[in-house]
Amino acid sequence: MSTSPASTPTAARMFPEGPAPDPAGSRGEHRIRSFHARRGRITPAQAAAIARHWDRWGVELDGSPLDLAALFGVPEPRVVVEIGFGMGDATAQMAAADPSTGILAVDVHTPGQGNLLALADRMGLANLRIGNGDAIVLLRDMLPPASLSGLRVYFPDPWPKTRHHKRRLIQPEFLALVTPLLRPGAVLHCATDWEPYAEQMLQVLTAAPGLANLHDGFAPRPDFRPMTKFERQGLAKGHVVRDLLFERVRPAF
User: Fold this and answer.
1) Treating both helix axes as pointing N-terminal to C-terminal, what angle do 110-123 and 44-57 enclose, rounded to 10 degrees?
2) What are phi and psi of 153, to 5 degrees?
3) pLDDT tens-digit readout, 24-42
4) Closest by Cα among 253, 201, 199, 164 to 188
5) Phi, psi of 188 (to 5 degrees)
6) Hey, CA dihedral for 68, 74, 79, 85, is it positive or negative?
7) Which residues, 6+ apart, have CB-to-CB distance to 222 below 8 Å?
8) Residues acting as catalytic residues
9) CA distance 33 to 172
């Protein structure tokens, strides 16, 4: 379904002090990956940001247990995971607007990692960390139960062809993995501009145990989610952007 980062022969040499080409190694076997690995077309400025700032903001998703308090330098931190941040502009804006919330933003797009690192440095974003690798490894192996105050999945790959629908990220199996990681009251926020995927998301999220819709169907576009270039392009093409906000309900005993 995707090209393994390790299959890029020059990937390990591009950034010897930066993000690893395959941080989780064999942990990625025997499952569906949540991403396409993309490492090309990086600008000199993005490459320089990786070389200078990866040690400060970067996190390798290698499967090792992650201490969020140590990672963000705050006891009992409020942490939101964002899966797939693109070029990182919206992520940086959200981090700047809410400095009391730690954002662990995950992607494998090297140019995007470099761009977000540059933004983090320029804006002084102490509450941001950039995860390199497969988000499934992070969620499955690295986080303790009830450790997250939110999860954001904005504009994931819609896999529009019917035969590829099984590759979509928002599926019952994914929600069964994610839901125990959310604290009661934590919000799972999804957004997509692909209407058939939006309908599937709504159906799957509504049926997921432990989650409750905060709205009657789709949610109004929340003010805290910045408009991105990608979203503007979709709107210009006539796409309808849908937001879904589901809350983690307190487990029944």
Assistant:
1) 70
2) -130, 95
3) 775 554 444 444 454 558 9
4) 201
5) -95, 115
6) negative
7) 189, 243, 245
8) 157
9) 15
